[in-house]
Structure prediction request, 332 residues.
Amino acid sequence: MKSDIELISEVKAGNRKSFSELVQRHQRALLRLSLRFTKEQALAEDIVQESFIKAYQKLHLFEGRSSFKSWLYQIALNTARNKYRNRFGENAPETVNYEDVPLGVDPGAETGMLRADMRKFIRAEVDRLPERQRIALTLRIFEDLSFKEIAEIMQCPYDTAKANYRHALLKLKARIEALELNDGMGSEMGWIENLSKAVPEVDV
Amino acid sequence: MSQVSMWGGLYDENWWLEYLEGELEPSLKEDLKILLKNSPADRNCLNQLERVKNLVKESDEEALPEDGRYYDDLHDRIIAAIEEEPLASEEKEEDKPVNEVKRSWTASVWCAFARRWMPVQPRKFDFY
Prediction:
């Protein structure tokens, strides 16, 4: 199986069919990434299509300093951002209706928060993160990318990518602890004390 | 460097996150492994971070279409759109304007002045 770099060289030499191979190889991952941020399949498909077209148009600029996948992800994230901005203006709506998300559990419940509710809560909290923290967290945990790749995609220094991820994870940790304290202990002081330890909103 | 964290452990969350993500130097990582055996507070901190990470991972629900034809269709649409696009590297030399001269603004002004007032212009005064 040819590597991405080999296929790219062939495309640059005029062999368009090699780009077809690149599309087949990366379209699923790109669709998954786009879906994470748009939550809408039709929009995600548009982003995937536009991203590959842009990659094809700019292929002569790809020098191989990052992986093709990282470069493609970078294009997709920028495309997603622009599409959202064009569609909703500068004030994009939140992607989750928070009325549907249980932010607290009846202290009288026999068991703690159900697993499904916890998943819903965490998805809501991830969506609430500042954009760059959400991107770093998504790429690290869901896409299993290294911090080096994340920094390439986000076009930021390595330490900045790590800092964004760290802030995101610690913020989620604080929110989960606050929720579980409220759920399990029912102690108002404990809940407030724990919230005060929450990581402040920092988008690095 | 050691410091007492607010949880009573020796290191704070940032250290344990570095440990969890494999970002520490091997020698420091080995030191922390030994610490973990003896410090319940630090062990607890690390476990909590690991738990949060696992919860986030489990919350993933982005189900992709499984039907192969869906991806064939998507691929075909992308390739059809690309068929219309020229590759930038395909721009041939003969397509570029001949004797294309790029001048700065000041050079353009000077040349215009020179053409007006000096009909015969020595080549050495042409700026490119």
Summary: Chain B has a mean pLDDT of 75. The first helix of chain B runs from residue 13 to 20.
